[in-house]
# Entry
Amino acid sequence: MELKKCGPARQVQGGTDIMRTTTSILTATAAAFAFTSLVGVTAPISSAEAAKMVDGPKVTWRVSLWGKRRAFTESLEFISKTMKERTGGKFDFKLYYGEQLSKSKENLDAISVGAVAAALVCQAYHPGKLPAANVLDMPFLPITNFDVQYAVSNKIFSHPLVKKDFAKWNAIIFAINVLPQYEYMGRGKPPAKLADFKGMRLRALGGMGRSAKKIGAIPTTMPASETYTALQRGTVDAIGFPFTYTFSAYKLDEIADWVTINMSLGTVNCPIVANKGSWDRLPQQYRDLLNSLKRQAVEYQSAAYQKKDIENLKRWPSMMKFITIPEKEMAEFRKMAGQPVWDEWVKEVEPKIPQARELLNLVLKTAAEARKKFPTKRIYGK
# Structure
């Protein structure tokens, strides 16, 4: 499907500019979240198949999540609802929000000991435990839309080295999630250029933390559930989050003074991970049903992002200032915090992962191939 491309977004200064900028970003948003066919995933089930019931034993999977229900978790909501419907209530894919079962930084450990059957696991929350998969968290990777992101994630999560890392924790990657590119939302004096970030305390995960250092900022890692208090109290000056849904999901937009709209810093990866024993004990018909839902789950997630973006981008211009960093500066930022940071990561992990360069090259190769198939850009302001 051919998607419309959008012109550069502009910094908001007045009423007319607010309208033009918001319209521009909304157009980009529509392109950003319009899924074409996904790479390496099961085709959507037909209406006839959807009506077919799947019989089997009564099973309950406890799934550990943090925060409240939000766009990011709609993939799991879809799986939970559909599994219950298609099995007549016999398979309960039960979602536990608010860290009821496990802290976000402890989900991998909970999976490992079988305390939960499944969980969202962000590699950046588990530094050192999933080193091979951290290649996906590098800043400024050439990920231009969700199709490209899914293709790259699918390739890396299928790699034997990455599977081996997860296997050490008695875990398997059940399904891939996609996340929008990160931007910064903050309080206090808005940055007008990259130099204004010098000395700023930023919540910046994974490779984005490495890139923040390149412009003199001070990165810190904290779970999403702690960000509101940190920003409100001034512990940090700005929060790096996926644009736009996460900022509103954690109510940061209620206390923020500004938000960047064209940095496209990168993203983190948070797949749905299952305990291997829990997966192996499932009857085959349940595994088949779960696998058949993966693509649709991501499409539900994508649609939820788009809906939330439309809502946020209509409200935000009256609540905060939109910041567009000059493109010339962003080009320089990508130059000094892209490949150099990737190379630093390779050098750092090569003693433990001799194939680190191979993994990075695989990311770049897969992204290049996917961009040819899915050329529409989703990066605002480019």
Confidence is low (pLDDT under 50) at residues 1-16, 36-45.
